[in-house]
């Protein structure tokens, strides 16, 4: 009898703890959802997703996500590879990573912001998949609402009909970069676009020890670099993104060109399977990769749009114009010159990878008229590099070295009539 009573008490205590934990989560959700002091009365705070679970097999899978308020949503499909895209209003995701570990029909699940006022859940599927039922239900205890998504495996023909029937083309506000037209720079001003890689739903790599996301590393460094460059006489540097937002690769190029940039510097801090590899690398664009490592890195970086659920449309064939070809060649030559100047500045000052100037087909470096480089500051998979990437003094030092490289590049370009 005593044992039975102990079991009852244990069960009661467990249930009580579960209810308390749920109430605490809801309390945090409600607090986080309150408008900030500077928010206008008619400006609604972001939704808050505070819980999730997933279950199923390779035929059917169910996802459930708990929100503090009733979420509006829309569902779309993207092919090659198959992805299910769930668009939401701006949402703060307070989810434990393990709560949406991919399983069943899905091999990867990502979520995050994709632009002003918009967030997105991207479900990468193992094959043709359809959301057969999607509904929002109030929680029984009144703590919020849950979005329930039931997915089923379907044949290719059915999936192609879904693609053809939907009006969504992977564009619109979810991937729109709201940028006012940049005024023409003052005569003689040297304009530099500083591009913080990744952002929003595209978190990039994750630190081996700190677990910090690459998108935060690159933005922190971009701010310091832009500030350093702006102290140079006659230089004006601007950021392609100044907050945690998603920009497609094409948008980054477009922002640089619309900003009348003379240079484009894209910042990254990737991870590698070989954790002993460390040091900075400077990449320029080429239709052929210089080595296997460069090819692998370019392939991963070019997946940024795919990760965010953007439908990648084939680019229209360019006009066969010899002037365009000459412009590309000249731009590429300037890009190589900039890369070499950066390597020269870094030598003996910071750790460089072997053969630090490499090249591959990076889509973010494809502007035909803006010399561009992609700078791997170091690798978050290496503990020593990771410590440096988190060090404010190191960021200042490296930014100063990049500014020196840009100064020499600019002097040479002016001397050669560039």
TrEMBL record:
Entries under InterPro entries matching the protein: AMIN_dom, MurNAc-LAA_cat, N-acetylmuramoyl_amidase_3
EC number annotated for this UniProt entry: 3.5.1.28
GO biological process, alphabetically ordered: peptidoglycan catabolic process
MF terms in GO: N-acetylmuramoyl-L-alanine amidase activity
Name of the featured protein: N-acetylmuramoyl-L-alanine amidase
Reactions listed under catalytic activity: Hydrolyzes the link between N-acetylmuramoyl residues and L-amino acid residues in certain cell-wall glycopeptides
Keyword Signal: yes
GO cellular component: outer membrane-bounded periplasmic space
UniProt xrefs under Pfam families: Amidase_3, AMIN
Keywords: Hydrolase, Signal
Limits of the MurNAc-LAA domain: 253-407
SUPFAM superfamilies: Zn-dependent exopeptidases
């Amino acid at each position: 009898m005593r044992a039975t009573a102990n079991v009852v008490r244990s069960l009661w205590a467990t249930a009580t703890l579960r209810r308390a934990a749920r109430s605490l989560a809801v309390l945090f959700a409600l607090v986080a959802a309150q408008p900030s002091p500077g928010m206008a009365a008619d400006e609604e705070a972001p939704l808050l997703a505070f819980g999730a679970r997933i279950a199923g097999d390779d035929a059917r899978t169910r996802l459930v996500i708990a929100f503090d308020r009733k979420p509006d949503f829309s569902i779309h499909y993207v092919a090659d590879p198959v992805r299910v895209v769930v668009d939401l209003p701006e949402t703060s995701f307070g989810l434990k990573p393990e709560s949406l570990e991919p399983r069943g029909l899905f091999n990867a699940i990502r979520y995050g912001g994709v632009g002003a006022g918009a967030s997105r859940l991207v479900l990468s599927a193992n094959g043709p998949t359809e959301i057969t039922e999607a509904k929002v239900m109030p929680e029984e205890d009144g703590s919020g609402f849950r979005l329930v998504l039931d997915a089923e495996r379907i044949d290719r023909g059915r999936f192609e009909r879904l693609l053809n029937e939907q009006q969504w083309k992977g564009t619109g506000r979810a991937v729109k970069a709201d940028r006012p037209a940049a005024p023409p720079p003052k005569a003689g001003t040297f304009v530099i676009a500083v591009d913080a890689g990744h952002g929003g739903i595209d978190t990039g790599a994750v630190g081996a020890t700190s677990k910090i996301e690459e998108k935060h590393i690159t933005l922190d460094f971009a701010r310091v670099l832009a500030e350093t460059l702006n102290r140079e006489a006659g230089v004006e540097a601007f950021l392609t993104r100044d907050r945690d937002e998603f920009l497609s690769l094409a948008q980054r190029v477009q922002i640089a060109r619309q900003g009348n940039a003379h240079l484009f510097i894209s910042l990254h801090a990737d991870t590698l399977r070989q954790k002993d590899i460390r040091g900075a690398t400077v990449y320029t664009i080429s239709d052929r990769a210089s080595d296997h490592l460069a090819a692998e890195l370019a392939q991963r970086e070019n997946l940024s749009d795919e990760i965010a659920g953007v439908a990648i449309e084939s680019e229209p064939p360019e006009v066969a114009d010899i002037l365009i070809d000459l412009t590309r060649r000249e731009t590429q030559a300037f890009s190589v010159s900039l890369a070499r100047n950066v390597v020269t500045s870094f030598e003996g000052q910071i750790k460089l990878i072997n053969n630090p100037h490499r090249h591959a087909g990076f889509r973010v470096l494809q502007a035909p008229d803006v010399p561009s480089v992609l700078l791997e500051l170091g690798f978050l998979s290496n503990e020593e590099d990771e410590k440096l990437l988190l060090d404010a003094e190191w960021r200042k030092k490296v930014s100063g070295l990049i500014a020196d490289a840009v100064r020499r590049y600019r002097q040479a370009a002016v001397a050669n009539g560039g």
